[in-house]
Amino acid sequence: MSSVCILTDITAQFPQPTFPGQAFIRILPTRLEWGDQVIHDPKNLKLASFPPSARGGALPRLIIPEQQTLQEYFLRLSREFDHILAIFASNELCSLIQDSSRALEAMEHRLNLQIIDSQTISIGLGYLVQTASNLIAGGATAADAERWIRNLIPHQYTLLCTSGLSYLHASGYLDHAQATAGEILNFLPIFTLEEGRLTPVEKVRNFRQVMDYYQEFLEEFDHFQYIAFVQGHPTLNTESRLLRQFVQENFPKTPFTEHTLSSAAATLIGPKSISLFITEKF
Q1: For 64, which DSSP code?
Q2: Do 76 and 111 contact (CB within 8 A), yes or no?
Q3: What DSSP state is assigned to residue 71?
Q4: N or C: which end of the chain has fewer CB within 10 A?
């Protein structure tokens, strides 16, 4: 029986801490840089240490491995596994898809490595990776798992709200004028990920209004497979409790989990963000 590896990046967060297919997952080694400091284990970086705004100083940055490093890592995995299924954060949010594709094309060795653009991040990405690994653990082939994940991606929805618009400017998603004006006016823009691209859908004044919008969005669906709420720092206890109660009362059979935003994802979307990840049944 051929062996299969599910490869992902450090922005992935998993719905459960342990699950059947966990042994098949590998995380691409990626570092963070903050000024002169190199952080090889981003889990040691607390969100509370992030500046609320990226203006006027250095901020943590996610550093994608260079092409040679990617090639060496792919070769190492190919010696351990017959097939590699790489599921990475949205190509619109991170260059890893593009860089990995270039590294693979430049290699003389032919590898059984398929790269999938998750079109999401954080728990959305982690859910796809966990699903793929569980399929492999259940006896599915690499081709079957890839087909299932590609069919699942269009049924995932992501809503994201952040007050740290200068982080989005630093990541290349907003221009300087938009980010500066939004932070000065204390706007809370809500984005959705449309084919992985941040698309503004609403602008509110406080996080309670954000939760109202999230609830209205949930009401547009009939059947869910999974719902997750992810928030940064500081924790919004009252607002998260209201959302939890809403889901429990209206969708009691749907698995619902809550998580703290990872430091790796925070470098891209800012530490003061709250996100809703939805997977509908299909």
Answers
A1: P
A2: no
A3: H
A4: N
